[in-house]
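Q: Two folds, back to back.
A: First:
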Amino acid sequence: MKTLEKVNYKGFILPVVIGAILWLLTPVRPGGLSVQAWEMFAIFVATIVGCITKPLPIGGTTLIGLIVTVLVGLAPVQNEVNPKTGAVNAGILSAFSNSASWLIAMAFIMAYGISKTGLGNRIAYWMIRRFGKRSIGIAYAITGLEIVLGALIPSNSARTGGVVWPVTESISKDYDSLPNDPSRKKIGAFLSFIAFHANVISTALFITGAAPNMVASQMAIQKGYTMSWISWFTAAIVPALIATIVIPLIIYKIFPPEIKETPDAKNWADEHLAEMGPVSKPEKIMSVVFLLAIILWALSGIFKIPQLDSTFVAFLAVGLLLITGVLTMQDALKQTGAWNILIWLSILVFMAGKLISFGFIDWFSKTIQTGLHGISWEIVLAVLVILMFYTHYFFASGTAHMTALYLPFLSVAVATGAPLALSAMLLAFTGAINASTTHYANGPASILATTGYIKQGEWWKFNFILGLVYLLIFGVIGTVWMKIIGMW
């Protein structure tokens, strides 16, 4: 007998209550705001709260928010043109023409080839064989693996859960370092913590490193700043490189493994490589296509070639993988993560655009600017970065956090005189590194903090220390670096 799917109806309570309260406050809304602006704000906040309480998966939650937007008359289904002014009232169908959503959806499909061909595991074994003589060497190998995968796999959870964690777990158990056991401190706890922070660094290095990065890039466009693959990478390369060198060393000092020498790791990697055999034809094609995509992304950012639009490059790469037989159309259709993100990212960006068109964001930034009159933009931007970082303790989703705060914070920074490019990139980086807070901060945290290798108290304590290091590296050194390269 068929049954209904489970729905977390309790998860609807808080967003509905908050949305209803805000809606009922429309008659006493702040001065300078239109009715439409306040009503859109109410729906937007309810949707973000729903992304946190998760009555439905994020795609379903945002879809409900979009439906409500149409039902209350804040958006038509199709674009409508005002015959008197010529102004376009964007319809909800236009949301799904968002290029960033399609870019990351195609990148998800491309990334499936990494696991299907086995290329990701081969890269992991190569790195362990090369650097695995000591535990700190394995730590750097895992970090290097994450960085390589960061350019190839747009989901931070997929990188950790699909490739990095299985390799880390296998190495730990080969050294009899078991979860939920005193032996966890032999090497398993250390490597698990390394794997998480490697993911934080790889996420910060690439615009396609995780979904919140793409949310930031689309929000920045609303304020007139465009982030390309190469501009993000250029801004992030120095702080990310420093973090790659420094973070494993700090973890080695504050959370050291009991096993320092790991000569068996090379043999372990050699055995797995022998099992895989020679590099296969699908792996070679996969490598060439990804390399081609990265080169074209870089060229499109440097030379601004219209035909090499980042999203088109992703479509081209998927097309090549289909033509060469590395992937099938069935493979593409089965990537639910790709189609899920296409829905919710498109909807959230559309709703944020409505907040701008109705004047809410402009009102918010001017209100804050008035309250901060006389305070230098340097102090304002520093405070906003710190707030963006530490408010993540209240969020279980990087996407929800970025969607809720990035655009308002960017608007405030720019309104007080802060350079647009610097503000946009610093806040975007902060949305990546603020994962180094809690055990529920993002997908990789949820995976690695629950393996049994790291206690919750250790997670919070050591992450608090490392959070300060990230703020120093990306906030201070990153700012200086972006000044050197002329971004502001």
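A: Second:
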Amino acid sequence: MAKFSKSTVPQFSVDVYQNEFLPEGGRDVSAIVTVTSTGGGTGGLRSLAPAGAGAAGVVIMVDCSGSMDYPSTKMRGAREATAAAVDTLRDGTSFAVVAGTHVAKEVYPGNGRLAVADARTRAEAKESLRRLSAGGGTAIGTWLRLADRLLSSAELTIRHGILLTDGRNEHESPEELRAALDSCAGRFTCDARGVGTDWEVKEVTGIASALLGTADIVADPSALADDFTTMMEKAMGKGVADVALRLWTPVGVEIAFVKQVAPTVEDLTGRRTEAGPRAGDYPTGSWGDESRDYHVSVRVPQAVVGQEMLAARVSLIAPDPLGGDPKPLSQGLVRAVWTDDLAMSTSINPQVAHYTGQAELADVIQQGLDARKSGDHDGATAKLGRAVQLAAASGNADTAKLLSKVVDVVDAATGTVRLKAKVAEADEMTLETRSTKTVRVKR
């Protein structure tokens, strides 16, 4: 029988911010749920894994299609970045390197398996990077499926991928990529990066979204090594995997939406899996020492003044490494109280107001950029002007700076802007890629 260690227990906390007061007949209840994990990056649930089981596994998928040679700095930057990521691997981490073209090929260690990181295997992996050369097409779904097979070949608690591409997914259909993502979702998380400016933003962000990872642009190949090092450091900090946000609602309560709203906006509503009577789980991926915010919106039955009810119970759920029922980690309550006090029932909770604005900010940036690409200058001006206004009002300085490279800001407070006549492609792609990044509310 396997031996288990229980030396470290992860600590999760759930805090609920809301205005629970509704006018008579009011039905819509919103709450911001802040989830904080401490201790996950240094032990966490992986300490309950069978003795000898690998804590984490990472597969690095490197685009080696022909376009990576134009300019040659991209392929060189990819090799250097992968070497830097390998150097960042913690001893004992399982890992592999995959070369991606119109097919996926194992570069290291080979034979359908993972290596275990130590001084020798890191040196061997870096030596194998000499075999990375550009040639062929791009079929990202094949890369992801190979990563899934490799990560499934070992007993792991944390399963993660890092994917780099420089071009569009031209050698498989969108349906084939979607099928691969559906197959891999929930099996491993994946960070995706686009290098240069010849890739499709919605493809890369779609991969990261489906696999609960991050997406970003690295316009200059010389910056890849630093970016890969940072990604791997964060991956090494993950200690609790497959955590779900479980929402239980009483009879008669309808769920409007469940969204992650910090550090990025991610709509989880359609990802619900049923978890018993009136309960559903929403995936959140892997956790280290970090905090995230979620916006939960429900519709309750009408009620009279003086009545109150539990509108929803929010719990954090993680699998039991011993094979038992999923473990509840922490929980919070969303309430509804009906009142005839107009001031109480019309007050908007600051956290709810802030993140409602951040979600709108992400939407209007996408709408504005789409309008700009289609030649609808009036529509683009209106949407991007609203984005400037929202970014300024919420203190989202990073997004405001990115917007200023696409529009000339006349008056941020009113959202008065003019579209720039010429915009660098890298600037527009950076704004689109990072449009869902949010700033946290000041409490």
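Q: And?
A: The chain is about 30% helix and 30% strand.
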